[in-house]
Design a protein that fits this description.
Elements: E1 15-20, E2 24-30, E3 42-53, E4 59-67, E5 74-76, E6 81-86, H1 91-99, E7 105-106, H2 109-125, H3 131-138, H4 151-162, H5 170-177, H6 181-192, H7 196-213, H8 218-225, H9 230-241, E8 252-254
Parallel strand pairs: 1-8
Antiparallel strand pairs: 1-2, 2-6, 3-4, 3-5, 3-6, 4-7
């Protein structure tokens, strides 16, 4: 939907399928909510008839782009696209963000086709598809090798997967393992490869979005994810993705 000036008002819903990983989110479908925006996550996307505008209205056309964190942009395409959002706090996210310090990066046609496969695999297989590592390699970056996961952290990941929102905080989780908070934070980052704070944030967002997909109101979804209220959830969603969660209501399928 556009206003009288012809600019996109961001009123269209996002329609398609999405999945959350430990430090990323993948989406395949029709993009809506395309008003000028910026977000905390690194964003990579590809599609046909793709146009990207910066804050000054300058236009770039191509098969795909990777946008650094906190860079103003607006995407227009009427075709199905593929999108990957990456937490810049994760090592892979930091490496990609550092590569993009000069600004938005355009993908070559072959790279865009490879990126489509990366997102499709992430949607199907989750973290096992390694979308961050594969995007790093696509961009010519070396992926850091991870250490074997600590058994205590492996147990903690299982605990988080079934936990109620109130224990999705580092203090409560540390107490459950008999560790100090600082020790847990270091151990988690060494074992999983991303900061505990980032992991918990993505877990909360995933739960909230899955609740929306199940038909919950924004308030119910916020509480399901462990957010204080719908306003807190909406602010976090806009900060991370540049999207108002209302644009996802009733039009998005979330893969478990």
């Amino acid at each position: 939907m556009t206003n009288r000036s012809g600019r996109d008002t961001g009123a269209r819903p996002w329609a398609g399928a999405a999945r959350f990983g430990r430090a990323w989110a993948a989406f395949v479908g029709i993009a809506g909510d395309n008003a000028l925006h910026r977000h905390h996550a690194v964003q990579a996307f590809a599609g046909q008839d793709l146009r990207v505008f910066d804050r000054d209205g300058a236009e770039a056309a191509g098969d795909g782009f990777v946008v650094p964190p906190d860079v103003w942009h607006r995407i227009t395409t009427l075709q199905e696209g593929v999108f990957l959002y990456i937490d810049p706090g994760a090592p892979g996210g930091r490496a990609i963000a550092n590569l993009l310090k000069a600004g938005m990066h355009a993908l070559l046609p072959d790279e865009a086709r490879s990126f489509r496969v990366i997102v499709a695999d992430a949607l199907a297989d989750g973290d096992a598809a390694d979308p961050i590592g594969r995007l790093m390699r696509l961009l010519g970056l070396c992926e850091a090798s991870g250490d074997k996961i600590d058994p205590r952290i492996e147990s903690l990941l299982e605990q988080i997967a079934v936990a109620d929102p109130p224990i999705l905080d580092s203090g409560g989780l540390a107490a459950s393992l008999g560790l100090s908070r600082s020790r847990l934070v270091h151990l988690f980052t060494d074992s999983v490869g991303i900061p505990l704070r980032s992991f918990l944030l993505w877990t909360k967002l995933r739960r909230a979005f899955e609740s929306i997909a199940a038909g919950s109101t924004l308030t119910e979804a916020a509480h399901s994810g462990g957010f204080a209220d719908s306003a807190h959830f909406s602010r976090t969603c806009r900060a991370m993705f540049g999207i108002n969660p209302r644009a996802l209501t009733g039009s998005m399928v979330f893969r478990p």
